[in-house]
Amino acid sequence: MAAVTNGVTKITSSPRGAAGMLMHFVFSALMLCCPLIVCAQGQPIPPCGREPVPAYARPDAPPNVRTLSGDELVSWVPADCTAWPKATGGLLIALAGSFRFGGTSDKLLARFGAVSGMRGAHYWSVTDKDWRILITEASALRTPDPQSRRANFSAQELETGRDAFFSQTDSRSTGEVVYRMRVRDKRPTRLVLEMENVTSVRWFFVSIFEPQEMKSLYFLERLSGGLWGYYQLVSANTVYARGNEASFINRTAALFQHAIGIQPESAAPFAR
């Protein structure tokens, strides 16, 4: 497996045991190099009243990415605006890019509310060495019950502090997973959204993520005119995440591309 520390790739051992072998199959990362993304330096800092780390990449460039694991992650102090506790292990990814968009923040928020639009989204599989479907099924929900399917959320329904639930089926896991989405901040020039898994992520009979072990924070802010900054923090708080940075980076990149309206197959792969 490969891990990134301060932008340098190093090889780590694979998880042991039956569950580890399953994770090796599910999130196999044979070799992580960064020819197409910038592996940034420094502790991740989200855009909460100061310049983010990593910095926003140019809109015509791949996003900047920083990963933390092991002692680096344990020593990381989350910014107050995340309201996250200190990490105890696993993997943290910070991705920062920018994009041009002439619409309103409500129009951007509607992209997140259009949950079913994630169906068929692609990412670059380091295992298959090809583009692969990331989400095979997705639906908005009225409640955390996966049977309570409903139409997509409008921007008006995603009020600040209100929980919105949705389900997704991942091509690399077993069964539906229910997620909670909550808008933390909603202004004409800034959006902050949080998402986390409500139910376990499983591979056959093995739970690879317990509830709330997979969290994401999205920061979108207008930088100038029609230029927006995009910053995403992903916390995979499980022992199985470490050593699989390439797979997680590619999945995070796929979400970035979907949010800004890029077809992943039209761009070069991120981590190979």
Task: Give a quick account of the main beta sheet: strands, pairing sense, barrel closure.
Answer: 10 strands, mixed
> What is the molecular shape?
globular
Any guess at the CATH architecture? 2-Layer Sandwich
Strand and helix order: EEHEEHEHEEEEEEEEEEEH
Quaternary state reads single chain
DSSP strand content: 35-45%
C-alpha termini separation: 13 Å
SS-derived structural category: alpha+beta
Mean pLDDT: 81
CATH topology type = Alpha-D-Glucose-1,6-Bisphosphate, Chain A, domain 4
Number of domains: 1
- Count of helical segments? 4
Structure summary, number of beta strands: 16
| Low-confidence regions | 1-37
Q: Could you name the CATH class?
A: Alpha Beta
What would CATH call the homologous superfamily?
Answer: START domain
Helix content: 10-25%
Give the spatial strand order of the biggest sheet.
3-4-5-16-15-12-11-10-8-9
**How big is the Rg?**
17 Å
Characterise the protein shown here.
- Helix content is 15%, strand content 36%.
- Strand 10 and strand 11 form a beta hairpin.
- The longest helix is centred in the C-terminal third of the chain and has 16 residues.
- The protein is globular, with a radius of gyration of 17 Å.
- The N terminus is likely disordered.
